[in-house]
Amino acid sequence: MEIEDFKAKQRQVWEMGDYAPIGRLIEPGAHVLVERAHVQAGQSVLDVGTGSGSVAVAAARSGAEVIGIDITDAWFSEAHRRADAADVSLDLRIGDVEAIPFEDGVFDVVLSSFAAIFAPRHELAASELVRVCRPGGIIGLTAWTPEGKNNAVLSTLAQRLPPGPEFVEPSTQWGNPDHVREVFEAYNVDLRFDRPTFPLDFESAAAFEDFAFEYSGGLIAARLALEEMGLWDEAHAAMREALDQTNEAADGSYRVTWDFLLILATKSA
Predict the structure, then answer these.
(1) Torsions phi, psi of 218, nearest 5?
(2) Which end of the chain has fewer CB atoms within 10 angstroms, the N or the C?
(3) Could you report the per-residue pLDDT of 221-254, keeping only the tens digit for each?
(4) Could you report how far apart the first and last alpha carbons of the chain are, in Å?
(5) 121, 84 contact by CB (below 8 A)
């Protein structure tokens, strides 16, 4: 598979679901990112993989001038609706993190919450994030960790799927600080890491599962592929076992703490 074919398929997978409810679910990560990047009034901010606008709206509410890009415009209307409700404005455009459509050094802050990590070629994505950031500016990302409870559940499906093309690097590698240091090694940035958490609460593990398979394009696509391969029952059983193992509740509900890696890189002045 060629890179452009892969990206077209990736775009199709994202559009299979409805990202707006997913975005609301993981919005605590977006708020932590904007807060810890110290977004301020008057700054120019780029939100990469803006989706339904969680990062973009939070940054705009801080008084920043925000542009959001995404490989699909499927949720731009929701992002604009949220911006209108918050009485802020956003500039949203189609754009790819591996080829960000802006000149060098034009943004004070470049952010991406659980989005740029899905670009297939990590070093290329890192180079673009650094390129469009001004000297002295901040690049901030959030990434799921390989050993986190989120991945403990979702990996039960992923590990049963065929491997992707050779040029695709797993998104969970972004959750490893050593890997992040490697992809930014060629660029003059000062890296800092933290590992925040946020809780999820559902009426039951089955309710979480129903939510995930209704709204997540990635999970919808994974289920279809596993069903075609005759592996869905096996994968589903493993997922349910992982849900039981990660459940922190004892009352029949589903409560889990998801952790993520917060990456903050300051570009050398």
Answers:
(1) -60, -40
(2) C
(3) 999 999 999 999 999 999 999 999 999 999 999 9
(4) 40
(5) no
Tell me the C-alpha to C-alpha distance, in Å, between residue 6 and each of 19, 111, 267: 20, 24, 31
Give the tokens for residue 13. 């997978």
Q: What is the pLDDT of residues 28-83, one digit of tens each?
A: 999 999 999 999 999 999 999 999 999 999 999 999 999 999 999 999 999 999 99
Is residue 172 over pLDDT 90?
yes
Report helix, strand or coil for 191.
strand
Angle CA 244–248–251, to nearest 5: 85
Show the domains of the chain with their CATH numbers: 3-145+165-200+258-267 (3.40.50.150)
Average pLDDT of span 5-9: 91
Name the residue among 109, 13, 1 with its Cα closest to residue 63.
109
Distance CA 132, CA 162 (A): 35
Report in angstroms the alpha-carbon separations of 74 from 37, 52, 224.
Answer: 27, 9, 21
Average pLDDT over residues 133-152: 96
CA separation for the pair 263, 195 (Å, rounded): 9
What would the pLDDT profile of 181-208 be if each residue is shown by its tens digit?
999 999 989 999 999 999 999 999 999 9
pLDDT at 42: 96
Please give the structure tokens belonging to residue 58.
Answer: 């939070």
The region that residue 105 occupies, defined by phi over 0 for left and psi between -120 and 50 for alpha, beta otherwise, is left
